[in-house]
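sorry for the late reply, my laptop died twice this morning and i had to redo everyting from scratch. anyway the thing you sent over, i finally got around to it. pasting the sequence first so we're on the same page, its 252 residues, then the predicted structure underneath. double check i copied it right bc i was rushing
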Amino acid sequence: MVPYIAGRNAVLEALKARARVRRVLIEAGEGVPSALRPVVDAAQVAGVPVTRVPGAQLATIHPRHQGVAAEVDVFPYASLGDVLKAVEAAGPRALVLALDRVQDPQNLGTLLRTALAVNVTAVLLPARRGAGVSPAVSRSSAGAVEHLTICQVPNLGRALGELKELGVWVVGLEAQVGVPIDDADLSGPLAIAVGSEGAGLGRLLAERCDQLIHLPMAGPTESLNAAVAGSIALYEVFRRQRTREKEARPGP
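ok and here's the structure:
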């Protein structure tokens, strides 16, 4: 079965990455809508053919296609070796996002979009019992998947163990467990482990973590969903990195 992605941002970012788009499908009609002009222009730059097709055909790919889809190659996952090399190259700024059994494509897409925004070095996903990079994930990430180093591993705990051998500090995000994020040491190199929507981190993976942290809650809500909590934690790491770098700059 030929894989497709749909939606303006998802297709545009895939074209910018110039990695795996074979053909762009635009909804048939007179002219090109202004909202789709950047997609068509990017396709021309990348040398990718553009085909006009009925809207009903696009709807079979995704109900919210926004007038465009793309025929693509299978998503090119990175190897664990690639991840380890990227972490070594990033040095103290290395930041890895490890997702334990996150099932919902919308949650995964949101986390990947945040990961790109905060310059995550790599993302680790389990090869089983978790969502992978699908057309729905690509769309919900607004195309962020095309610019990230994403690796599927057979054993997430073992992969984190290899990161620890490189000096990476592994922090697990849990609800009401461990220290508040405000008090946690989040200096890098760092890996943030986020658990599934319902059960959180698996017991064995939690035991692999060097530290467990939680987000303090002011109201009666016990926890946030995986995408929101993980995004907050990632941005807190990013904020602290920027603060340290500003403080380290020499004065005028």
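The chain has two domains: 4-72, 80-248.
thats about all i looked at so far, will dig more tmrw
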